Amino acid sequence: MPQLFPFSAIVGQDDLRRALVLNAVRPDIGGVLVRGERGTAKSTAARGLAALLPPIRAVVGCPYACDPDRTAQLCERCMALLEDGLDLPSGLRPTPFVDLPVSATEDRVVGTLDIEHVLATGERRFEPGVLASANRGLLYIDEVNLLDDHVVDVLLDAAAMGVNVVEREGVSFSHPARFILVGTMNPEEGELRPQLTDRFGLSVTVGAVHDVELRTEILRRRLAYDDDPDTFMARWSASEAALRERILAGRDGLGRVDITDNDLRLAARLVAAAGVDGHRAEIAILKTAQANAAFEGRTAISVADMALAARLALPHRQRRGPLEGGSSDMVAVHEVLAQADRDGLETAADGMTSLADGQPQHGKGDPLAPDADGPKSGGFSF
Question: Would you say residue 1 has pLDDT above 60?
């Protein structure tokens, strides 16, 4: 299997990297919709994150990679074994990465029931689909805007509920389907319906890096990787290990980050200022802010966390009509954050950067850039 380009070696695309990492810390944020042209590291980042994540402990022989320590999330087969008093043998397997082709049908995605077997024997036999393979991993959809809308609906329903339910001819079957959903699209090839974009927890717009020094560094790293992938991976192994540990520490620290009434009110004010309908945006903001605080090793949510979360969770949910919403709404969001900062909370300067125009950040002085002796082996930040 070829070596994948290290996640921590990606230059720029700060919002994309942070959005992916926060979904790794808290997968129920709801995934990431990545908008932008080709050649901007979208698939490289998604594949790199999956390779970065630690192996998972799963029940041996289970097609859904059930976690033996989470009995409430077991599939029917594993639950039956447990109820019969049998042990669930487990082992380590790599974090799944599933690349969904744009031509995928609904049956290919959700799986199918063998109706003939059911009628002949009275026993259900389920042929797992893509959602089974992606459980506890990362599901990547390139050109998600070109998928059939009904298939996208099914994917987003499963991602939101954590369960895939298949019903055919009066027979139903369900299995766990908890995964990080990453969809990419080029807006020039068509848009997703607003009802679908709203279902993605976060959205990032990526573009080419324009800074000459950063573009030069991109070329330097890519050529070094192409010349000798093994050596390049070895040079970045310390950074990859450090980031992996921070993600795991963030997962462990989520329960220690309290969401206060002030955080709830600020989230509500931000969404109201942006003119966004529904309540998915508030939930995404709070979960993202909590994950960012945990990832950075803190136990309280700051205004900077909320500003970052707003930048990632609001723009794709704004009204897009010619007389509805727009950049003025994001200016209003900026003002809400500035007022929260003036009220005595922590600084929001970093999180508010470019919030008004919603443009991606490319981060000069990337702390992951190598120095003369090789890449930095410390933590991960933007």
Answer: no
